[in-house]
């Protein structure tokens, strides 16, 4: 009797465990650096507030803050 397709996938996945891009040990450092970059870009955008500086400062600042906040939350043990 053959195993179910889901069981086959489960067995295949057990041979290759998941390896995250950023390890648990370095999540705090990555999160801190991203939040620092977000703080700097937010300050630069606040000084030069215009539609021209939005793609240069505003969008990278919001992305760095979003990812940095998630990494910091995960680094201190609060899982999202």
From TrEMBL:
Cellular-component GO terms for this entry: oligosaccharyltransferase complex
Binding partners and assembly: Component of the oligosaccharyltransferase (OST) complex.
Keyword annotations of the record: Membrane, Transmembrane, Transmembrane helix
Major place of residence: membrane
Protein task: Subunit of the oligosaccharyl transferase (OST) complex that catalyzes the initial transfer of a defined glycan (Glc(3)Man(9)GlcNAc(2) in eukaryotes) from the lipid carrier dolichol-pyrophosphate to an asparagine residue within an Asn-X-Ser/Thr consensus motif in nascent polypeptide chains, the first step in protein N-glycosylation. N-glycosylation occurs cotranslationally and the complex associates with the Sec61 complex at the channel-forming translocon complex that mediates protein translocation across the endoplasmic reticulum (ER). All subunits are required for a maximal enzyme activity.
InterPro entries: TMEM258/Ost5 (IPR007915)
Subcellular location: Membrane
Highest taxon of source: Eukaryota
Protein name listed in UniProt: Dolichyl-diphosphooligosaccharide-protein glycosyltransferase subunit OST5
Pfam families referenced in this protein's UniProt entry, alphabetically: Ost5 (PF05251)
Protein family according to the UniProt entry: Belongs to the OST5 family.
Stretches that traverse the bilayer: 28-47, 54-79
Membrane-protein topology: Multi-pass membrane protein
GO BP terms: protein N-linked glycosylation
